[in-house]
Design brief:
heterodimer, A: alpha+beta, Rossmann fold, Alpha-Beta Plaits, 5 domains, 8-stranded antiparallel beta sheet, 6-stranded mixed beta sheet, 14 helices, 26% helix, 34% strand, globular, B: TIM Barrel, 9-stranded mixed beta sheet, 3-stranded antiparallel beta sheet, 15 strands
């Protein structure tokens, strides 16, 4: 155990976490240079494209120090986005130390702070690493000051590195060995192992990633997942090198995997404790939480006969993503679909993209919603995350919506615009602090519903990319909510209904009507698009009728061309949704539901 | 809806409509002295290549031995009237040696007004040409110039006069409308002028900005502003009403015949799935369920011919559903409409009633017949019927 170190890298988005992980792997010769593919740990397409880690992966780095002593350095990768903060916290709970990575040009940002607090909560040794020192705009001195003033860490302990060029990597490995304490634990005590991640493998079922705190687990043992009481027989245990490497056993202090015939990832819970069925631990490890989705939206197949295929895709997708929840949903306009719950907006986007790319689905996603609470006259409370189930407004006594506390770190010159943005988004309880000269930390209480719209994009754009943002859910607060309906030629398009704060209803209605106007092709008759609350019309736009759809010539080569166009339109017609007598293309739904202002 | 009168009362019978089941022959002449800015047709080959092309076409013709007799020959282009008397003679007599033609075959040559001379007309007539299609486009000077034609308005008038007086069995005038800035009055003036020459047939094409043409580039750069669809629809209705009033039959979206017997026999074959053979670069052919087309490029066309190969660029074999779709497409554009028994599965009674009620079609003895409003939506109608 003396020769094990368990650590994570934590960083603000884009500060170079994946690149550093790659360098560490390369340095410890786990992979031959020629097989090296940049950002080995991020192996989903979306991860590589967006430069973020979605699904964390773990790797055991073999390291020999100057005196010839061999160490196992377990790098526990963490997802780098607030949507996955619970998963991050479980990864951190499995470590004894972290590398806190800070970009030498950008300096400390909102997520740096958030990450630091999370690491401190777990009493981890923190090694600050200033990355990207090769950049011409790198300002190491300023970053050292920020480490001192904003993070309260000793700036002299910071290691300078350029993950891109590979400088400082040796210093980092040395510091991990020297500063991060070896894990403690007793291999003879009852087994307690923390699940910090789970992956699905189509041959082996669920591969559970865990950190063993006490005890030992071997092939053939019967394990029990403590939160659910389910038991499984262990088929294999091992550690992560570049692939899985089976071991005889996992014992206290080790990080590795267990394969135990667990069918789906959803059968496990991140944060749960694994113990032995025959010799159980009296207490689970602390910190287990059942994560609840916070953002909801429905998914419909574009062609309604694709519903079975979408169902199959969701089932497959769910094998590897336990945090997505879904149930059947149906809409008059879009037919049969699914209501889904997500950890956040990024999670929603990931699900959408992966369903489209990896599972080849063409889908329409409805506007994201948070979960609202309605208190009715009869004293009951209904929680509504789907506008379809908005209660009869005559029976609502009061309504509430979830709030978050946003923490925004910006250069001082942007205080004005950021304050304005937050106020527009119904922010309250603002608080300003000046951690270092020239920099401001603003905290605001904001309705979550306002943040899941384009908030982060707007923040980035008004601060020219300098603003950084972190948030946590705090509570529910009273709010004046209404249901906004969209009508096309007098018929309600239920899939476009949204729940909004009364003050925002008109703006939203106008925007949606305008977008639909741009996207619905003109038809042989006039089309009225209206936004309405109850029976009251609050916005309107009109698409004029077109009077002619015929081209002049139809000879020789025109015939094949025209027929092909018809064939294409015939196919496209399947993808149109007919509301009343109006054909609405998929693009119109997508545009209406888009949250940003491009 | 009153402005959308029915295009016709009931479809004229088969005989009176100049329709036959015999195949048609088309020859594509890929030459133009200059290229018109709206034209994406296969044209532009150097006129010095005419003799080579002529040999090529005749060689290609010989690649189809044993063809059934044709009852139409359409020499189109490009500009067939660039052929001098000798060249035209060689072409027509050459084809006569290779193929059989029925009695009273319709033999059309397309002409440009600036190529029209009495001598040429006399020569063509003596070769058996019995129908001239004259590419006038407009009688308004600015419009003629805008369209980049080589003639002017006066030349256009004297060309029509010459053709009208040359003793052909039939002649047709091509006009173009929907030009930027064109008023209803100006267009009606052009129509009146055309009718005053008592043509047997008129083709009135709405200017379409498409393909790889200078007009497309101009439109993209905002230098060409086309009339909106509402105004185009008005022009279309004006055209139909005016010519119908003058005794013309609006038998296809862009075509008008002065009486049922003057329908362009050759062109109708395109819309009836009647077989036709196309010779020359880019020409299309159809037989049975097969359609094929020649290479576009004149040089490559000749290369292929002289190498002893059929110069075919591509082909398609129509499936039943594709045949269906084309029947709907043709039927939506022509006075003969769609025989519902030809469509599998047949459209529902309910759908037919809806379309009748909204004025797109009439329905008589199991035929769906497009109204004038139906013509206006002919590109959309097939999918509305399905």
């Amino acid at each position: 155990m003396k020769h094990i170190r368990n650590f994570s890298i934590i960083a603000h988005i884009d500060h170079g976490k994946s690149t550093l992980a790659d360098r560490l792997i390369q340095y410890t010769h786990l992979v031959e240079d020629r097989q090296f593919r940049d950002q080995i740990l991020d192996n989903m397409d979306i991860e590589r494209e967006r430069g973020i880690t979605i699904k964390s992966q773990t790797v055991d780095l073999p390291y020999v120090d100057g005196k010839g002593v061999e160490y196992d350095l377990n790098l526990i990768d963490t997802p780098g986005h607030v949507d996955f903060s619970y998963e991050v916290s479980r990864a951190l709970a499995s470590c004894e130390g972290v590398l806190l990575l800070i970009d030498a040009a950008q300096g400390v940002e909102a997520q740096t702070l958030g990450n630091l607090y999370a690491a401190l909560e777990h009493n981890l040794v923190i090694i600050p690493v200033i990355n990207k020192i090769d950049l011409p705009v790198a300002d190491v001195e300023r970053v050292r000051n920020e480490i001192d003033d904003e993070l309260g860490l000793d700036p002299d302990t910071a290691i300078l590195c350029s993950a891109k060029e590979g400088t400082g990597v040796e210093d980092i490995l040395k510091a991990i060995v020297e500063r991060v304490p070896p894990p403690e634990g007793d291999a003879d005590k009852p087994l307690t192992a923390l699940i910090f991640d789970a992956h699905y493998d189509s041959f082996r079922g669920t591969i559970v990633s865990c950190r063993v705190f006490d005890g030992t687990v071997r092939q053939g043992d019967t394990i029990r997942l403590m939160s659910q009481g389910t038991t499984y027989r262990v088929e294999e245990v091992g550690v992560f090198r570049l692939g899985r490497e089976p071991q005889k056993e996992l014992t206290a202090g080790m990080v590795g995997y267990i394969i135990a015939g667990i069918k789906t990832v959803s059968d496990t819970r991140i944060g749960d404790t694994i113990t032995l069925d025959t010799h159980p631990s009296p207490e689970p490890l602390p910190g287990f939480k059942d994560v609840k989705p916070v953002v909801f939206s429905s998914i419909y197949p574009i062609a309604s006969d694709d519903y079975p295929s979408l169902l199959e895709a969701l089932e497959k997708y769910k094998l590897n993503d336990a945090s997505l929840v879904y149930q059947k949903d149906s809409s008059a306009a879009l037919g049969q679909g699914f209501r889904c719950g997500y950890l956040g907006l990024l999670h929603l986007e990931i699900v959408q993209e992966r369903l489209e790319r990896e599972f080849d689905q063409s889908i329409i996603m409805t506007a994201p919603s948070v979960q609202y609470r309605f208190y009715l006259d009869d004293g009951t409370r209904v929680d509504v995350d789907n506008p379809l189930y908005y209660p009869d407004p005559g029976t609502i006594k009061s309504s509430e919506e979830p709030y978050i506390r946003a923490s925004i770190l910006i250069p001082e010159r942007y205080v004005g615009v950021v304050m304005k943005l937050c106020m527009e988004r119904r922010g309250v309880n603002s608080h300003l602090s000046y951690p270092t000269p020239g920099r401001v930390e603003i905290t605001f209480d904001l309705p979550l519903a306002e943040v899941i719209f384009d908030f982060y994009d707007r923040l980035k754009s008004i601060t020219q990319g300098y603003g950084s943002f972190d948030y946590e859910l705090i509570d529910y607060r009273e709010s004046n909510l209404v249901k906004l309906d969209i009508l096309v030629n007098g018929e309600k398009v239920d899939a476009l209904s949204i729940l909004v704060h009364r003050d925002n209803a008109r703006d939203r209605a106008v925007k949606v009507c305008d977008r639909l106007k741009d996207e619905i092709p003109r038809q042989q008759f006039k089309i009225a698009i209206q936004g309405a609350i109850g029976g009251k019309i609050i916005s309107r736009s009109t698409i004029s009728a077109y009077r002619k759809d015929v081209t002049a010539k139809c000879y020789g080569g025109d015939i094949t061309r025209k027929r092909k166009l018809l064939e294409k339109q015939k196919k496209g017609k399947k993808r149109m949704r007919i509301v009343g007598n109006v054909e609405i293309p998929q693009s119109a739904f997508l545009a209406a539901l888009k949250t940003d202002d491009e | 809806m009153s402005r959308y009168r029915k295009a016709h009362s009931s479809p004229p019978s088969r005989q009176t409509m100049n329709r036959t089941d015999l195949p048609g022959l088309y020859v594509h002449t890929p030459f133009c002295k200059t290229r018109c800015p709206y034209c994406d047709f296969c044209s532009g080959a150097d006129a010095s290549l005419i003799d080579g092309w002529l040999n090529g076409v005749l060689r290609e013709a010989r690649m189809y031995p044993g063809a059934r007799p044709f009852d139409s020959l359409y020499i189109g282009g490009g500009t067939p009237s660039l052929l001098d008397g000798l060249q035209m003679a060689k072409l027509i007599s050459g084809l006569n040696e290779i193929f059989r033609f029925a009695d009273a075959t319709e033999l059309t040559v397309e002409m440009n007004p600036d190529d029209v001379t009495r001598e040429k007309l006399e020569c063509y007539r003596s070769l058996g040409v019995n129908r001239i299609s004259l590419g006038v486009q407009s009688f308004v000077e600015e419009e003629v110039r805008f369209l980049g034609r080589r003639h002017n308005a006066l030349q256009a008038i004297s060309a029509v006069e010459a053709v009208a007086g040359a003793g052909f069995r039939e002649f047709s005038i091509d006009l173009m409308y929907g030009l930027p800035g064109q008023t209803i009055e100006a267009w009606q003036g052009t129509l009146e002028k055309a009718v005053s020459f008592s043509p047997d047939h008129l083709s009135c094409y709405q200017l379409t900005v498409e393909g790889n043409t200078p007009f497309v580039r101009m439109a993209r750069e905002g230098k060409l502003v086309m009339p909106d669809d509402a105004f185009q629809a008005d022009l279309f209705v004006t055209t139909s009403e005016y010519l119908t009033g003058a005794g013309f039959l609006h038998y296809e979206v862009s075509n008008f015949a002065h009486g049922a017997g003057k329908v362009a026999r050759h062109n109708v074959k395109y819309w009836q799935h009647t077989p036709y053979l196309g010779l020359g670069p880019s020409a299309h052919s159809f037989a049975g369920r097969k359609r094929w087309w020649n290479v576009r490029d004149a040089a490559r066309y000749l290369e292929s011919i002289h190498g002893g190969h059929v110069p075919v660029e591509g082909s398609e074999e129509l499936s039943s559903s594709q045949m269906n779709l084309e029947k709907l497409l043709f039927g939506s554009r022509t006075i003969w409409g769609i025989n519902v028994r030809d469509i599998v599965p047949p459209p529902s009674e309910e759908r037919i009633r809806e379309l009748c009620d909204s004025g797109y079609i009439t329905y008589e003895s199991r035929r769906i017949l497009p109204t004038l409003k139906g013509y206006l939506f002919a590109d959309k109608l097939p999918l509305m019927i399905l």
